[in-house]
Amino acid sequence: MLVRQATLNDVQAITSLYKSHVDTWYDLNQQPVEYETLTLYERWRHGGPWYSLETCAVWLAHLLQENDAIPLVVELDGAVVGQAEVFIGKEPEPYGHHINISTLCVLKDAETEQVGEALVAYVEEMAAVTNCKRVTVANPKPPEFFEKLGYRSYMERYSVLIPAVEGHVFYKARELNDSSAQQIGGWFMPMGRFQNAREEWERMRWFIWNGIPPLVEGDWQGLTVELTGQPGILHLHQHRDNPTRVTVRLWTKNPVSSHMMMAVGDRVARMGYENMVTLVDSSARALLKDAEEISPSRWLYAKP
Fold first, then answer.
1. What's this model's pTM, rounded to 2 decimal places?
2. Residue 241: what pLDDT?
3. In sequence order, which residues have a C-beta less than 8 Å from that of residue 238 and are 6 or more positions away?
4. Are 139 and 51 within 8 A, CB to CB?
5. In the beta sheet, which residues pair with residue 25?
6. Quick one: CA dihedral 279, 282, 285, 289, positive or negative?
7. Cα 267 to Cα 218: distance, rounded to the nearest angstrom
8. How confident is the model at residue 139 (pLDDT cuts 50, 70, 90)?
């Protein structure tokens, strides 16, 4: 087996990998239909940009322009049988300098474990070459596959609903005009971190999907937020089905404080939202007294 960086010539093969795992295709009304009748948005709803040639090509071209995002494929006898995407992260501990495996897909009916193991081994070699301390994977499915390879649960995150409340805190908030990921190098991500801080930054680049209007419905906001000596970057995305609710992502230069959390809540409330949804770890969870856990915990696995 050969593991290599993906190219745009692999788009059709990558799309076929993901499509091989779908037995029945559904439209927006949850009616079973033929794949060819689906819109690009309906195909996306089955799991992301990899389910149609057009969106897969846009996403892959975007990744290939980034220095810290690497798309990979596995070839067996000249055919692509597996795919993965990894993001290199530079965050304070407990994450540190690491590589996160964000996606891993193997062609249905292929030698799943062998192909998956080849991809993971290649990523671990990348980590060693780039002096990364660890390789991580968020909420792996199935976890047994990664546990067999030496990965262990490393960090628990909580999905929470938080009331948006105006607070008595002084801060400055301005529209973010720079979408460069370099500005968050070495920063914390106390709110909204599912994969790693670097990959979550891709949500700030929703404009690459402007050609598919349903993907960018709702209000999207990127803001710089600054308290005295506490700079942060805030990303807000209005929920499609509940316009009074917003998903929150927050990057901060310093460890998050209760005042920064108050500033986020104040800003969200003043924008007219009633509540916020986000992911937090235990330290950030302790600062959110009124937060309600709304789904099971999610685990980050790591090696070593």
1. 0.94
2. 87
3. 218, 219, 220, 245, 246, 273
4. no
5. 33
6. positive
7. 17
8. very high
Those residues with Cβ within 8 angstroms of residue 247's Cβ, 6 or more apart along the chain or in another chain: 192, 236, 237, 239, 276, 277, 278
Placement of tokens 């609903």 in the chain: 161
Is the pLDDT assigned to residue 175 strictly greater than 90? yes
Burial of 35 (0-12, 13-18, 19+ CB in 10 A): middle
d(CA 24, CA 205) in angstroms, rounded, equals 31
Structure tokens at 25: 């295709």
SS3 letters across 207-270:
HHHCCCHHHHCCCEEEEEEEECCEEEEEEEEECCCCCCEEEEEEEECCCCCHHHHHHHHHHHHH
Hey, what amino acid is at 81?
Answer: V
Cβ-contact 138, 154 below 8 angstroms: no
Residue 80: phi and psi, rounded to 5, are: -75, 120
DSSP alpha helix (H) spans, the chain: 11-19, 40-44, 53-64, 112-129, 143-148, 197-200, 258-270, 282-285
Walk me through the domains of the chain, giving residue ranges and CATH numbers. Answer: 2-150 (3.40.630.30), 157-299 (3.40.630)
Give the Cβ contact number of residue 152 at 10 Å: 12
71 neighbors 64 (Cβ within 8 angstroms):
yes
What percent of the chain is modeled with pLDDT above 70? Answer: 100
